[in-house]
Structure of Neuromedin-K receptor:
Amino acid sequence: MTSVPAAANWTDSAGGMGADAAGNLSSALGAGAVAGTAEAEWLQLLVQGGNLSASSSSALGLPAASLAPSQPRANLTNQFVQPSWRIALWSLAYGMVVAVAVFGNLIVIWIILAHKRMRTVTNYFLVNLAFSDASMAAFNTLINFIYALHSEWYFGANYCRFQNFFPITAVFASIYSMTAIAVDRYMAIIDPLKPRLSATATKIVIGSIWVLAFLLAFPQCLYSKTKVMPGRTLCYVQWPEGPKQHFIYHIIVIILVYFFPLLIMSITYTIVGITLWGGEIPGDTCDKYREQLKAKRKVVKMMIIVVVTFAVCWLPYHIYFILTAIYQQLNRWKYIQQVYLASFWLAMSSTMYNPIIYCCLNKRFRAGFKRAFRWCPFIEVSSYDELELKTTRFHPTRQSSMYTVTRMESMTVVFDPSDADSSKSSRKKRGAPRDPNFNGCSRRNSKSTSTTSSFISSPYTSVDEYS
């Protein structure tokens, strides 16, 4: 989640500095470039290497370093110049991520917002997730890749601040949108009688996620700096207390945008999974309840795959920055740039997988993607696909939904007006007892079925919510 890549590891090629000094300079530059810690200690070593004047050091709040008059200025060259074929391959890989992520997520947003049937609580959070993924792919991925290749910041001071600020914001919004979906699924399945989030409440939750994301990422914007050096310009984060403060901040970010939300989702989806897959509904349950159960399982399965994909994609990236911050000698390894580019590509690729997952595992999203690409000669939109996005198969009322969770057997009382002789006693005939839980369903095992069906239907949801 930093914009300064591993490509900025430089060494002394003029021979004016001793081997130890050159090694320290290379290590400091590499650590600063890799972890975004190009701050006090890093700049001080640059001063000692003859790349910054004493006046510029003082201007940055660092103690002025006096260089011996006879000490030559170090000539720094890039150790990580790549051949053209390798640059072309990496460019193709990153370009594919950006194209699929941006267009795929924009189509997801269109599918949900343009079709009334798709506007559910879960899908509103999916819109937020898609927006954050598309934004990060569009505004961060290619810029960071260019910086990683050239070790030169071409985009000005304002975009430097944005580049250091926005990735954390977008990742926070993505992961907590997934967390909100997990909690919503948990409440809908474990406690179905409680009211679901309204559209207004959902918008408030989404707004709160972005506000918290801005607050968490604000220090990155506040302390972002650009530094013009001989032959190149750097974009980095200069923390007031140096690299140690940045390392602590990065650990806090990893906990808040990775481990903590993944822990919450692991717990909620484990409980939901045990509930949905832990026991089978009795064999005579009617088709409507079976369809709702299958729909819930499909949605939960899809979201579990989304979460696992996110966790796998981002884990190497976080491990990379922790290791290079602790063991700074790794920044001088000749293959470290390739490791950085690979881990960063994998992290950014998490933005392109979700549309693919939705299309493969959800028939309505699949129908939406077919409509979006109907101009392609090999894409055929069937009448069934059109109905998936336009019609609703079930329209349960609040009353009929309430009946699905009651266990009482009602008794019909019939008054017989033809019996005049017994008018005073108002003779009553009992109708056959019926169970309103199961309109058109078998009554065998009705008691156990009604108990289990309490987590299949609720007065606030329909099968559309899960399909």
